[in-house]
Amino acid sequence: MMKWLWLSVLAVILDQLSKIWIASNMNLYQSMPVFPGFNITYVHNFGAAFSFLSEAGGWQRWFFALLAASISVGIVIWLKRLKPEETLSAISLGLILGGAIGNLIDRVIYGYVIDFFDVYYQVWHWPVFNIADSAITLGVALMLYESFMHKQQEG
Fold first, then answer.
1. Is 57 inside any structural domain?
2. CB 125 within 8 Å of CB 107
3. What's the number of domains the chain is made of?
4. Which residues belong to the signal peptide in this entry (predicted)?
């Protein structure tokens, strides 16, 4: 099911191009309103999801880079072992792989991940995220959907 790797490549390209555009056209912490509930806000995330370990002193950069690289290798092996009828699994894994590589590139090059999607309601803001994070989230959601649908078909 390696034919779905184009999704990974697409996710990485869209992610990296968007981050380059943001970093080239905005100042750090600058925020541009798009519509109520959504801003483009340029931030650096030195941690993982939800800025987990962002204040850890620097070691987390290489820890998360190594983790993402290891997971990426595991996903490629998993993709190779999928059966032809496991299309949704291949799509899910392709998106997760693309997201992991997109954020891995940032960690290795910059030491942080560039985030910019800022979703909020009144004064509550969801942690700022990017296209790579969105690809990972969509991939995981599709994987969960598939597992629930598979369980319903069995039961």
1. yes
2. no
3. 1
4. none
CA pair distance 155, 152, nearest whole angstrom = 5
- Assess if residue 106 is contained within a domain: yes
Q: How many helices (H) and strands (E) does the chain have?
A: 4, 4
Give a yes or no: residue 117 inside a domain: yes
Q: What is the pLDDT along the chain (155 residues), one digit of tens a residue?
A: 788 999 999 999 999 999 999 999 999 999 999 999 999 999 999 866 655 555 555 666 678 788 889 999 999 999 999 999 999 999 999 999 999 999 999 999 998 999 999 999 998 989 999 999 999 999 999 999 998 887 667 65
In a domain, 31, yes or no: no
59 lies in which domain range?
A: 2-26+37-123+131-154
Q: Establish whether 115 is a catalytic residue.
A: yes
Catalytic residue among 15, 106, 118, 133: 133
Annotated catalytic residue 15: no
